[in-house]
Amino acid sequence: MTSPARILVVFGTRPEAIKMFPLIHALKADERFECVVCVSAQHRQMLDQVMEIAGIVPDHDLDVMQPGQTLDGLTATLLTGLGQVMDTVSPDRVVVQGDTATAMAGALAAYYRKIPVDHVEAGLRSHNIYHPWPEEVNRKIIGTMASLHFAPTATAAAALINENIDPARVHVTGNTVIDALHWVSGEIGKRPELAGDLAALEQRFAGRRIIGVTSHRRENFGEGMEQIAQAIRRIAERPDVAVIFPVHLNPNVRHVMNERLAGLDNVALIEPLDYPHFARLLNIADIMLTDSGGVQEEAPALGRPVLVMRETTERPEGVEAGTAKLVGTDAARIVSEISTLLDDKDAYEAMARAHNPFGDGDSARRIVELLANEIG
Ligand code: UD1
Ligand code: UDP
User: Fold this and answer.
1) Using one digit for the tens of pLDDT, what is the confidence trace for 32-65?
2) Spatial contact of 110 and 116, defined as CB atoms under 8 Å apart
3) For position 355, what pLDDT does the model report?
4) Which residues partner with 282 through β-bridges?
5) Which three-class secondary structure state does DSSP give residue 245?
């Protein structure tokens, strides 16, 4: 029997961990592969929350996170650290996900060693290098080096082919976030207490329309965050509304939100939720208000109207399906869009339909088979 192919899976932030754990579970269950997990820990607590729920213990942990880290400082540390892990592990292939600094540096470190690097969630494009910033460029850089491109949708595959990537290297797999959502829903089904800590808030806000909020995008720091806070304050003037806002640990987000929104009766500023509790929030929210990438994929899958606080999106599928709407970060616009959804039943019903443009929950298995074909 030939020895298993050694796959080094590299990631560092909360959303990468959520989208990688289904693939790690599948690789670890398959004897054709030896799966080695390296986390940069670009995020610390928010990464560890996911690792614990998914039952993954990393083989290598660079523990790079610094409070208020800069893009260049972070990238430099990642590049040398991940390179050293690759020299120690000598993988046959490296797999990265998405568009973070860790994914970009991981791909580059692999390329410098001429190790083939495969890209999960390939081909997302907003066609604006400052929205989202710096992710649009990170994923383009990865695309120039990747061996296999696992595109979540036909739109993403088409974007890669448009950039002259060999179509034979591009595969539509669906997005592993849907695999993750199915998995976590199954776990909650078996053990409801996994998502039980929201019960007190649910009771406190019973009878009100719930708006779930997340926000963390770098391009929204400063004025964007101020506008978002202002919009939430104004919406919270309505007695029929309650806001549940798990606040990202980035100090650029926390500072503004704590300052502007503390002490409001119907606004719960809470710590980042672990994945089962966030899945619960997605289920109890009437509306999601977010600038997150992953939430734009999860909300349509669950039929939750999602207002996206961005000018443009690299995930047009949710907007095309009608479940997502781009509303930017102008406070007046956000308040007006939320009010429409709250007051106009038809407008709400038109958005609240479940669509699964991002996959059927079987993406990790497809990726594993494509990797198996590649190793022969
Ligand atoms: C990063 C990614 C972004 C992704 C987002 C998901 C880059 C450049 N940015 O942005 O693409 O959408 O993660 O959330 O790769 N912090 C903690 N604990 C944590 C996590 C963060 O304290 O567990 C704080 C630290 O002060 C840290 C700061 O947040 O320095 C920023 O973290 P960083 O990963 O640089 O940026 P994000 O804005 O989280
Ligand atoms: N999420 C979570 N807890 C939270 C907020 C979000 O588990 O308190 C999950 C969410 O379900 C989604 C992912 O984190 O899968 C999105 O992460 P984030 O918004 O930080 O990053 P992005 O997707 O924008 O890169």
Assistant:
1) 999 999 999 999 999 999 999 999 999 999 999 9
2) yes
3) 80
4) none
5) strand
Provide the pairing of β-strand 241-246 with 267-270: parallel
Check pLDDT > 80 for residue 213: yes
Whether 18 shows a pLDDT value over 70: the answer reads yes
pLDDT digits (tens, 9 = 90+) for 139-188: 999 999 999 999 999 999 999 999 999 999 999 999 999 999 999 999 99
Q: How far is the CA of 168 from the centre of ligand 2 (A)?
A: 32
Vertex 96 angle, CA 95 and 101, to 5°: 150
Half-sphere exposure of 197 (CA within 13 A, CB side): 12
Adjacency order of strands within the sheet including 60-61: 60-61, 33-39, 5-11, 93-97, 117-120, 149-151, 170-172
Query: What residues contact residue 20 under an 8 Å CB cut-off, 6+ apart?
Result: 9, 11, 95, 97, 120, 176
Mean pLDDT of 122-132: 96
User: Who contacts 315 (Cβ-Cβ below 8 Å, separation ≥6)?
Assistant: 124, 293, 296, 297, 324, 358
pTM, 2 dp: 0.98
CA angle 178, 8, 188 (to 5 degrees): 30
Cα separations in angstroms, 327 against 130, 200, 289, 291, 312: 17, 31, 9, 10, 9
Give the residue carrying structure tokens 């001429």.
Answer: 114
CA 260 / ligand 2 centre spacing (Å): 22
What residues flank ligand 2, with Cβ below 6 Å?
14-15, 18, 177, 214, 216, 246, 272-273, 275, 278, 292-295, 298
Find the 15 Cα to ligand 2 centroid distance in Å: 5
Q: How far apart are CA 232 and CA 279, in angstroms?
A: 22
> Which is the closest atom of ligand 2 to the Cα of 279?
11
CA dist 168 to 124, 160, 258, 366, Å?
18, 11, 50, 15
Domains of the chain listed by start with CATH number? 5-175+360-375 (3.40.50.2000), 197-352 (3.40.50.2000)
Ligand 1 atom with least separation from CA of 12: 34
